[in-house]
Design goal:
The chain is mainly α. Helices cover 66% and strands 0% of the residues. The chain is built from six helices and no strands. Helix 4 packs antiparallel against helix 5. The N and C termini lie far apart (67 Å).
Length: 152
């Protein structure tokens, strides 16, 4: 008779005879601050040419919906690759939260795309950079959260 598998802190997760596969993490050797700076830099590099490419497609005669579809086909492909690598355990555990956050993200991304098409990039990026302020004001008005003076 073989011994029973070892119990873990979580009863639904049981130890197996094989260790889980090791995954390479690009940020494993970086401190949290360096990780944050690297992610912010990557975001800036990715967002900076966004307005140029959107306006270029628009100047070539593409309509607003055509530009949005062209942009998000690539994003959807990237997210599917990332999801297949990272796993979908979180989405399976709470699908209603997953779809609610996906709808919020879709609304944000579509608004950003059309904002860049309908106004100049400086105004669009200014409005987007003020997102923490909008969140604080909505928290105060909708959720009746206290608004610390340092926030304003």
């Amino acid at each position: 008779e073989s011994p029973a598998p070892a119990r873990t802190q979580y009863p639904e997760v049981q130890a197996t005879s094989r260790p889980p596969p090791r995954r390479f993490h690009i940020y494993a050797a970086m401190s949290n601050r360096k990780q944050g700076l690297a992610i912010a830099l990557a975001g800036v590099i990715c967002v900076s040419p966004d307005a140029m490419f959107l306006r270029w497609l628009h100047a070539l005669g593409a309509s607003g919906p055509d530009v949005a579809v062209a942009k998000y086909v690539g994003i959807i492909g990237f997210m599917l690759l990332l999801g297949s690598y990272r796993g979908l355990d979180g989405a399976r555990a709470s699908p209603e939260h997953f779809f609610a956050s996906a709808l919020c993200q879709l609304g944000y991304q579509l608004s950003f795309t059309f904002c860049l098409l309908l106004t100049d990039a400086a105004k669009a990026l200014l409005l987007i950079s003020l997102a923490p302020l909008w969140a604080a004001l909505l928290g105060k008005l909708v959720l009746h959260e206290p608004l610390p003076r340092r926030t304003v």
